[in-house]
Amino acid sequence: MGLAKRIIPCLDCDNGRVVKGVRFVDIRDAGDPVEVSKRYCDAGADEITFLDITASHEGRATTVDTVRDIAAQVFIPLTVGGGIRTLDDIRMMLNAGADKVGINTAAVFDPPFVRAAAERFGSQCIVVAVDAKQVAGDAEPKWEIFTHGGRKSTGIDAIEWCTRMVDYGAGEILLTSMDRDGTKSGFDNQLNCAVSSAVRVPVIASGGVGTLEHLAEGVLEGGVDAVLAASIFHFREFTIEQAKRHMAARGIEVRLSGGTV
Amino acid sequence: MSTVAVIDYGMGNLHSVAKAVEHVGRELDLDISVSITADAKTIAQADRVIFPGVGAIRDCMAEINRLNVGRMVAEAMQTRPVLAICVGMQALMARSEENGGVDCLGLTQGDVRYFGDELRDRSGAWLKVPHMGWNEVRQSRKHPLWEGVPDGSRFYFVHSYYVETSREDLVAGKTTYGEEMVSAFADRNIFATQFHPEKSQTAGLRLLGNFLKWRGES
Fold first, then answer.
1. What are the structural domain ranges in chain B?
2. A175 in a structural domain
3. Could you report the per-residue pLDDT of A45-90, keeping only the tens digit for each?
4. What residue numbers bound the domain in which A222 lies?
5. Is residue A1 part of a domain?
6. Residue A214, SS3?
7. Which range (A99-103, A106-110, B27-31, B54-58) has the least confidence?
8. Known catalytic membership, residue B198
9. Which positions in chain A touch B134 (Cβ < 8 Å)?
10. Nearest by CB to B134, which of A4, A71, A97?
11. What is the mean pLDDT of residues B25-47?
């Protein structure tokens, strides 16, 4: 027995409420982030990822309060992403109780920011979030980094980008397939496999989970270290515990006793 | 009222550990006050001391030495319970391989080693470094901090370096990641963990609660 594969529920939050956009439109309300986090933690979630999709500046203050409230009640690792652009943003989230921050757009526009962040706060708290989209065929697939919710191509190759981010000090890669996000058709495991075998840090797969078997496939076919999902948990289609049991039944090592010891 | 000082030498986020200790104190109905501090006097007067640490050892040791934290810990461990976490545990050792080799505090017997870039499990599968996530801790000996923590419980780890010691009698817990490593260490009034109890949910909170009740030695 050894290190368990992690299941990470993701809370997309807009102005203090949990929402989940299917392909970033049609946003549905899924509750209070503190209550939702507690429920996930009690059910055995291995970490919580909180993604702030609030557009307004005023909304940012709400986010800090929410992070503080979650951190006071949830004693598992908490990652906060969305709008992290400066060292002060990172400091503010860590002070509010986050354990890691997710950096996405700012990494693309200012790669040395990742290096500065890792040097200042340590790689262990720097997660680089990568939105990748397939741009070349299945025989020899290629993926590029996209920004603005998958609408703008950057022309940067996804695998090279992940390798570079790790060189800059990223402690973990949160890899989202923009082709799959919101589709419930399963992870892009070719992408997961390509990134996971290219970098030495843990990779979290995201985008496309619709069934419990999709979670297992991320590990078995994609070779990732952790799987992230939002909507299948938010709308109570499945519980975290069911997800863990399913993965265990597929021979994957998971932390089963989390909520009950 | 009893006091807990979390030593703040400017490295990383100490709020998590302080919040977890406060939470456990409330749950156990203990009257405790937690401070995050670098003040020698506050630390000298605290009933219990927590020595945390994240990030690179060279930076940590630079701040530890600049603020004279080593002396504070050395003094505390003579008379009071000290809990060292992650890089805090590593800093107690003699020397670390990180950053090309760094002298640590040498307050106990052990050294800090790198997992290596070619770490593999028994089946030959490549293991990621850092070792990040929930892994099992096998309790090597009885200790008041293990009270009520089931043997083999999973705790949350995030580290690329680990402690090695020739003093088997000081090993309190072991974990396997490619190789067997020391995940908990107990030397007189010090209990040290490579994992993060403050992030390890039920098992971690139980350990922190035990620390709040522990009077040292064992």
1. 2-103+110-213
2. yes
3. 999 999 988 766 666 778 899 999 999 999 999 999 998 999 999 9
4. 6-249
5. no
6. helix
7. B54-58
8. yes
9. 3-4, 6, 46, 255, 258
10. A4
11. 96
Residues 196-225 of A with CB under 8 A from B: 197, 200-202, 225
Give the pLDDT score at A62. Answer: 83
Residue A257 pLDDT: 66
Distance CA B109, CA A49 (A): 38
Query: DSSP assignment, residue A174?
Result: E
Contact A261 B202 (CB under 8 A): yes
Neighbours of B180 (CB within 10 A): 12
CA-CA-CA-CA torsion sign (B178, A100, A110, A182): positive
Partners of residue A46 in chain B, C-beta under 8 Å: 133-134
Residue-level pLDDT at A58? 66
Task: Provide the number of CB pairs (under 8 Å) joining chain A to chain B.
Answer: 113
Domain count, chain A: 1
Domain B2-103+110-213: assigned CATH number:
3.40.50.880
Instruction: Report pLDDT digits (tens) over B134-163.
Output: 999 999 999 999 999 999 999 999 999 999
Within a domain: A187: yes
Of B16, B19, B129, the CB nearest to A200: B129
Taken in order B180, B147, A259, A174, the sign of the CA dihedral is negative
- Give residue-wise pLDDT tens across range A219-244: 999 999 999 998 888 877 899 999 99
Token pair, residue A52, equals 């702030």
Residue B148 backbone dihedrals phi, psi, to 5 degrees:
80, 5
CATH of the domain at A83: 3.20.20.70
Interface test with B, best of A1, A3, A90, A192 (most B CBs within 10 A): A3
Distance from CA of B88 to the nearest CA of A (A): 14
The ipTM (two decimal places) reads: 0.92
* Residues of A with a known catalytic role: 12, 131
Give me A97's structure tokens: 């109780």
Q: Give the three-state DSSP class for B133.
A: strand
